[in-house]
Amino acid sequence: QSALTQPASVSGSPGQSITISCTGTSSDVGGYNYVSWYQQHPGKAPKLMIYDVSNRPSGVSNRFSGSKSGNTASLTISGLQAEDEADYYCSSHTSGSTSWVFGGGTKLTVL
Amino acid sequence: EVQLVESGGDLVQPGGSLRLSCAASGFTFSSYAMSWVRQAPGKGLEWVSSISGSGGRTYYADPVKGRFAISRDNSKSTLYLQVNSLRAEDTAVYYCAIRTQGYYFDYWGQGTLVTVSS
Q1: CA dihedral A98, B23, A41, B33 (to 10 degrees)
Q2: Cα separation of A6 and A102, whole Å?
Q3: Which residues pair with B65 in a beta bridge?
Q4: Nearest CA of chain A to the CA of B74: how many Å?
Q5: Residue A72: Cβ-neighbour burial (10 angstroms; 0-12, 13-18, 19+)
Q6: Please, what's the b/e burial string for B107-117 (b: 16 or more CB within 10 A of its CB; e: otherwise)?
Q7: Mean pLDDT in residue range A91-108
Q8: What percent of chain A has pLDDT over 90?
Q9: Which residues of chain A lie closer than 8 angstroms to B59, CB-CB?
Q10: Which of residues 19-48 of A touch B (CB under 8 A)?
Q11: Chain B contact residues (CB < 8 Å to A)
């Protein structure tokens, strides 16, 4: 069982918006503004999409946005495109003995 | 351009050992903390270990504490992970990743597969 809880799958049609949630505790998501999101296509390495809750690295489309409320963080993808179909993982720094925790991953299907 | 290239993964019997390597280029290696993150087949990501830029501080996830050892050779821009007493549950793709500023992993290598099976 992963430390952070994500839905196993979400789907949307091209042009629509979707939101992926990531629920943790006050020891990780709720306690720090250090939530990050990663995109992973099959057989590829993860790619950083969002850091520090809502910041986008250079080169990442502004269709990707992040937010947090309490112990739950969210990734929103607007204007869905076929290339967005991938697995998405959230991560947070944690005060526990594990320095970082990840979510179990969410498979995004673009219909 | 940042490049991270892992190697050393293999098929190994339970109880065996391996040394994984991650060759880095495109940045000042000694300036940044490095980490290993693994992914079991069909599963999610799991942080394994991190090391400071100087190598003086190391951190481990509980499942690998006492069995894995992270190290780095800044003169060779290479990160290592010595994995001992391997178990079936250690079977995974092992990625090296860099943290340039905060509590996130900016760049990742392509990974190296460790399979533990008799």
Answers
A1: 30
A2: 10
A3: none
A4: 23
A5: middle
A6: bbbebbebebe
A7: 88
A8: 91
A9: 99
A10: 32, 34, 36, 38, 44-48
A11: 35, 37, 44-47, 50, 59, 61-62, 95, 102-111
Separation of alpha carbons A92 and A68, rounded Å: 12
* Percent of chain A predicted with pLDDT > 70: 95
B40 CA: distance to closest CA in chain A (Å)? 11
Query: Could you read off the pLDDT of B22-54 as tens digits, one per residue?
Result: 999 999 999 999 999 999 999 999 999 999 999
Interior CA angle at B105 toward B104 and B108, to 5°?
170
Of the candidates B44, B102, B110, the beta carbon closest to that of A45 is on B110
Which tens digits make up the pLDDT trace of B46-59? 999 999 999 999 99
Residue B60 to chain A, least CA–CA distance (Å):
7
Question: Which of B35, B44, B108 is the closest to A45 by Cβ?
Answer: B108
* Residues in a beta bridge with B108: B97
Distance, CA of B86 to CA of A88 (rounded, Å) = 28
- pLDDT attached to residue A3: 83
Amino acid at A87: D
Contact criterion met (CB below 8 Å) for B70 and B79 = yes
